[in-house]
Specification:
It contains ten helices and twelve strands. By secondary structure, the protein is α+β, with helices and mostly antiparallel strands. The strands form three sheets. It has a five-stranded antiparallel beta sheet. Strands 10-11-9-12 form a four-stranded antiparallel beta sheet. A three-stranded antiparallel beta sheet has the order 1-3-2.
């Protein structure tokens, strides 16, 4: 058999969850030999993939907090996948349960999933996870600036990159986890707002960044005169006039809604060259409009 049955992610996590819930203390070296993976892979399992659980650690040994043992008797994995934002990956959950994943060969295989390695940031990730779960204020340094009394709402993996989505000074922002330092939990708690959480679920993390985003577009010659006459794009700059009369222009935005209405107005005579996330956002909105009109 060319692949060991323990090599799939679902199989490994299912077994780990079951054994933790039964009260076992799991050691990295033993698990690495059993599953034929590296200890670093297992650290990612505990610190990232299973970070939503109240898992305790003593050195290289992991165990479930005793007060939680045996609490979750549900075998249906759908609620967990929905909470993690992964339910769209499976068209049906009817035959999917932890018992089936653990006791039978899993029917799914995820290959070459692109997720950044956060093993060097395990302690900060754990602190952030606890703060999000307990609705506690945090402070941290980010890009040579100190942020105090931030309200952490969610750790989001967007296109393989981990972000902290938090409210600071009344504004929802996103921070790359790998750029955070000196993370500290403040004892005080904040009042959780479900509308903010809903907004996080709807927005790509790119659009919540504090840094301005440069948009590069190609403007057809048929409408070039309008953009030459006045700046129709946010912070517009014409960078080149092409031989065929088309223009290359840039715009600076901090939110996609600053530019999407303008782009939609001038379609199909304007093309987004970068960033690709904005192009995808425009395509999604256009598809939504088409679907709505066709009903």
């Amino acid at each position: 058999m060319w692949m060991n049955e323990h090599d799939t992610l679902a199989k490994r996590l299912g077994l780990i969850l079951t054994r933790l819930n039964s009260g076992e203390r799991l050691t990295l070296s033993v698990l690495a030999q059993e599953f034929n993976v590296t200890e670093r892979t297992l650290q990612r399992d505990f610190n990232e993939r299973l970070c939503y659980l109240p898992i305790e650690r003593e050195g290289s040994t992991y165990f479930l907090n005793p007060i939680y043992l045996g609490r979750n008797k549900r075998t249906d994995v759908k609620p967990i996948f929905e909470l993690l934002g992964l339910s769209s990956m499976f068209p049906s959950f009817d035959a999917l349960s932890f018992n089936r994943l653990v006791n039978k060969k899993p029917p799914f295989l995820f290959r070459d999933i692109k997720v950044e390695d956060l093993s060097e940031y395990a302690e900060a990730f754990k602190q952030l996870t606890l703060a999000v779960q307990n609705h506690q204020l945090i402070e941290f340094d980010y890009k040579q600036q100190t942020y105090l009394f931030a309200q952490p709402y969610k750790l989001v993996n967007d296109r393989g990159v981990w972000y902290l989505s938090a409210v600071h000074n009344g504004k929802l922002k996103s921070f790359k986890v790998t750029k955070l330092s000196k993370v500290n939990i403040v004892p005080d708690k904040f009042e959780f707002d479900s509308t903010i959480e809903n907004h996080i679920h709807q927005e790509a993390m790119l659009w919540l960044t504090e840094s301005p985003i440069e948009v590069v577009v190609k403007i057809d010659s048929s409408i070039a005169s309008h953009f030459n006459a006045s700046p129709l794009l946010p912070d517009q700059s014409i960078i080149k006039r092409l031989d065929d009369g088309c223009l290359l222009a840039t715009a600076m935005i901090t939110n996609k809604n600053q530019i999407l209405p303008v782009l939609k107005y001038w379609l199909p005579d304007i093309e987004i060259l970068s960033p690709n996330e904005l192009k995808q956002a425009l395509l999604i909105e256009l598809q939504f409009s088409i679907d709505k009109m066709s009903k």
